[in-house]
Design brief:
254 residues; alpha/beta; Alpha/beta knot; Trp Operon Repressor, Chain A; 2 domains; 9 helices
């Protein structure tokens, strides 16, 4: 897999991608990274990449032409890497929310290649987005100073799904959102910390009871913290029983 990022801060993306899971996966050759600066494609002596918005208002808008030229070279690099149809993604708060299901689909595409557009300022000329972008994705209902951090989050989410990226292949199957639930609580040594003990069941060695406890804890956490996720879940017979137990225990505490 190859991922290219069009950004005014290529060093920021390139440096951050060398750490942790994404860095190890780069070293293992599981994916390739390229970064392209629209400023290198500006045609005036000031290397201008933005201008005032038509209609007035605060801030500046990124010009279409420098980004378009950067995209052309990014796609050429994708082709040289064997990608026949790179998919162009604009990371933007105006995009549809990024989900685990979408991440898995992006990671699982055969011979996939992605070109991410990381905007700055007030945004990018809409005509560039309409002509050049295949998909817009948002990492949340909030605004940050630029698209670099969202792009890095998307890259990390995709790369960790690639076979061989994680040292423990089961890790990716036991995370939040994989089965539509938040992850259960986790504990490690010492057994007692600040007066709080690890739940006895996790020390029991009884794998069936541990699995049941973790499922119940995931259900309880999702019910409390993400009722929107929980409301969309079709409960199995076992899960329905565990939910009743959670509700009974909550009523007893109250």
């Amino acid at each position: 897999m190859r991922i290219d990022v069009v950004t005014l801060f290529p060093a920021m993306v390139e440096h951050a991608a060398t750490f942790g899971v994404t860095g190890r996966a780069l070293e293992r050759g599981l994916w390739q990274l390229g970064a392209w600066n629209p400023r290198d494609y500006a045609t005036d002596s000031y290397r201008t990449v933005d201008d005032r918005p038509y209609g007035g208002g605060p801030g500046m808008v990124m010009l279409a032409e420098p980004i378009s030229r950067a995209l052309k070279d990014a796609r050429s690099a994708q082709s040289a890497a064997g990608v026949t149809r790179p998919w162009t993604i604009h990371v933007s708060p105006s995009g549809r929310p990024l989900t685990h299901e979408r991440v898995v689909a992006l990671a699982g595409a055969q011979d996939a290649g992605y070109v991410l557009v990381a905007g700055r300022y007030e945004g990018i000329d809409e005509r560039l987005i309409a002509r050049e972008v295949d998909e817009e994705l948002s990492i949340g209902d909030f605004v940050v100073s630029g698209g670099e951090l969202p792009a890095l989050m998307l890259i990390d989410a995709i790369v960790r799904q690639l076979p061989g990226a994680l040292n423990d292949a089961e890790s990716a199957q036991q995370e939040s959102f994989v089965d539509g639930l938040l992850d259960c609580p986790h504990y490690t040594r010492p057994e007692v910390y600040a007066g709080d003990a690890v739940p006895d069941v996790l020390l029991s060695g009884h794998h069936a009871l541990i699995r049941r406890w973790r499922l119940k804890a995931s259900l309880a956490r999702t019910m409390k913290r993400r009722p929107d996720l929980f409301s969309r879940r079709a409960l199995s017979k076992e899960e329905a029983q565990l939910v009743r137990e959670v509700q009974q225990e909550s009523e007893a505490q109250q």
